[in-house]
């Protein structure tokens, strides 16, 4: 199989494989939280469980910086595979600890379970940055927004599978430990799929894209030079890429809004509804987040990749909705509340999903790094890690604001207004990028126009069209030019889908 059909087949496979990778990460991340009651029955205290969550969040945020850089320096699919396999090992440690005397040991339980979750957070940190790096190598800027918007539904699929699988196991005669053991086994098996069958980039399977053809022409037909990869950039160099840190801090405020809604909304609603009703109503917010990334990505593609402008528009629409909840939540009818929560989920989910996927991929192609395509993992890790740290710190303000609101008799109003402030600050941090998108220089205007050019695999038996060929006076000497029929040798193209 040669040319465009082969590229399309592999792109579909890479999409599915990386989608499952991240879904598996969320299944293994959520499965233990669904059996916390059973873990307490085995002897774990609420203090240990809370410490496990905190340790996970800390190492997940810090690990994103490291794993992203590892994905740019080594085989990304192998790094993802190690992360999945490591998650399974951590789940095995949790199961062993809960099935032995460790859970009831006052002196050893905290060290065992908290330490395991700290290690688990690091392995889980491979999911976002490295899978995004693999996807970015296969999709160009043109259709990237919509594709990445669809792709970011992986986390919700993983959460849904975790919830339903755990509910089914806990309601059956099966031992509750199978809620951890089943994802542990499936996750480990899928890790080996990454080790053997997931290609990192088109050249791994003998496909030559337009980018590689340009490199071949630049190297005077030297195949070895064209195939050689540039050295990966460092974290310091990635931070210096224009707009990376503004996106990183903006994402932190947007992620704080998402965390506040995701974790606090059931408690906020419980002041006016029963616990079961509050959980049902709050689920509409999560449901709305799924199409958010798709909408944001699709619209930004329509406008030539102007993603900051689209993200800012969605967040500014969110502001009046947050203000409405701040002053009218206690008297709002149920139906309008359901509709508003679904819309709010879409508005928050769009920027959150796109910034860590399509935006990160766009930033990794900045001209300042001179075409180095081994930057995406590092850039995504910086954005994801910085955002997680900002969001974790901001979460600490919510209980303080709630207590202040209770003291003043306004309930959660100050919390909602705090989220309004976070929305405005995060949007403001995108200001310089928005200005460049709306008033680009001639060179930047050409860049936006070029975002409508997609990857084209070069059929190995076809020469470039005459309209694209250089004039005879400018063409390279015949001794230096690559033969017109030159193709990637079949011996170099992998017949299977191995890395």
Q: Explain this structure to me?
A:
The chain has 21 helices and no strands. It has helices at residues 3-31, 36-41, 46-73, 76-98, 109-124, 127-138, 144-151, 154-170, 178-197, 210-218, 223-227, 235-239, 244-269, 275-302, 307-328, 334-363, 376-395, 397-407, 413-429, 431-438, 442-450. It is globular, with a radius of gyration of 25 Å.
In short:
By secondary structure, the chain is mainly alpha-helical. It is built from 21 helices and no strands. The model is unreliable at 450-499 (pLDDT under 50).
Calculate Rg over CA atoms: 25 Å
Poorly predicted runs of 5 or more residues? 450-499
In what range is the share of β-strand residues?
under 5%
The helix-and-strand class reads mainly alpha
Largest sheet: none
Euclidean distance between termini CA atoms: 17 Å
Tell me the helix content: 55-70%
How many E strands?
A: 0
**H-E string:** HHHHHHHHHHHHHHHHHHHHH
Quaternary assembly: single chain
General shape: globular
Mean pLDDT: 78
Count of DSSP-assigned helices: 21
List keywords for this structure.
499 residues, 21 helices, 70% helix, disordered C terminus
Secondary structure layout:
Blueprint: H1 3-31, H2 36-41, H3 46-73, H4 76-98, H5 109-124, H6 127-138, H7 144-151, H8 154-170, H9 178-197, H10 210-218, H11 223-227, H12 235-239, H13 244-269, H14 275-302, H15 307-328, H16 334-363, H17 376-395, H18 397-407, H19 413-429, H20 431-438, H21 442-450
Helix pairs in contact: 1-4, 1-6, 1-8, 1-9, 3-4, 3-5, 3-6, 3-17, 4-5, 4-6, 4-9, 6-16, 6-17, 7-14, 7-16, 8-9, 13-14, 13-16, 13-17, 13-19, 14-15, 14-16, 15-16, 15-19, 16-17, 18-19
